[in-house]
Amino acid sequence: MKAIVTGHSRGLGEGVARALLARGVQVMGIARHGNQALPAMHQVALDLADAAALQAWLAGGELAAFLHGTDSALLVNNAGVVQPVGAPGTQGAARLALAVSVNVTAALVLTDAFVAASNGCADRRVAHVSSGAGRAPYGGWSTYCATKAALDMHARAVALDAIPNLAIASVAPGVIDTAMQEEIRGTPERDFPAIGRFMALKRDGALADPLVAGAQLVDYLLDARFGTTPLADLRDAR
């Protein structure tokens, strides 16, 4: 098997990459920064917020060359940003555009390219890393909620396309102890009224370790259940 993982430089993405490597999977990681702790994988330095750079990289054929000859392929669209946090009128055009570019545009563009490049694979899978925020609204998170909901709807629609040998799901992995959680806890309550819940999760030790969560996600991605439903929550699958 060969797998592509975005946002592998830290957090859940690193956990997913480590778990795949441990299973003998050949992994390509795509992120702005490399991860020196993962020398066994092929790493691509690419800013997924830069749509033009992503298109140019895809045109160069590196993704297609990586997938060439494999019978089993996996794409994990993990990269994401939580900013901008706050109500409309305070978010700003630049931060809004970056969030949509990373959270939605890059995932959809890579999915399209992956499906084209993996044509002929007997088993190919696409996983969007979603969030409970894509399925329940939070004040101050209108952009984050909307971008995660977009991934959910994309998976549901692609599933209806019934593409041969392709399984797709948008998977919420639960609440994980990552840098994004640190960023959330540093947000003023006026911008994110639910901050108390996330502070309590940290205080009570209820945040999942990213390496453990990554391994659990990989277990699900490689399981026969994957793709039987286009929306999944790992907390229900455990």
Describe the 3D structure.
The protein is 44% helix and 16% strand. It is α/β, with parallel strands linked by helices and 238 residues long. Helix 1 links the parallel strand 1 and strand 2. The protein is globular, with a radius of gyration of 17 Å. The chain starts with a strand and ends with a helix. The model has no long low-confidence stretch (mean pLDDT 95).
Strand content: 15-25%
Q: Extract low-pLDDT stretches.
A: none
Query: What is the gyration radius calculated from CA atoms?
Result: 17 Å
Helix content: 40-55%
What's the number of helices? 9
- In terms of quaternary structure, the protein is single chain
Largest sheet: 7 strands, parallel
Shape: globular
Number of strands: 7
Short description:
This protein is 44% helix and 16% strand. It has helices at residues 11-22, 51-59, 62-67, 93-117, 142-161, 179-185, 195-203, 210-221, 234-237, and strands at 2-6, 26-31, 42-45, 72-77, 123-129, 166-172, 231-233.
SSE order and pairing:
Blueprint lengths: L1 E5 L4 H12 L3 E6 L10 E4 L5 H9 L2 H6 L4 E6 L15 H25 L5 E7 L12 H20 L4 E7 L6 H7 L9 H9 L6 H12 L9 E3 H4 L1
Parallel strand pairs: 1-2, 1-4, 2-3, 4-5, 5-6, 6-7
Helix pairs in contact: 1-8, 2-4, 4-5
Task: Describe the structure using short key phrases.
238 residues, alpha/beta, 7-stranded parallel β-sheet, 9 helices, globular
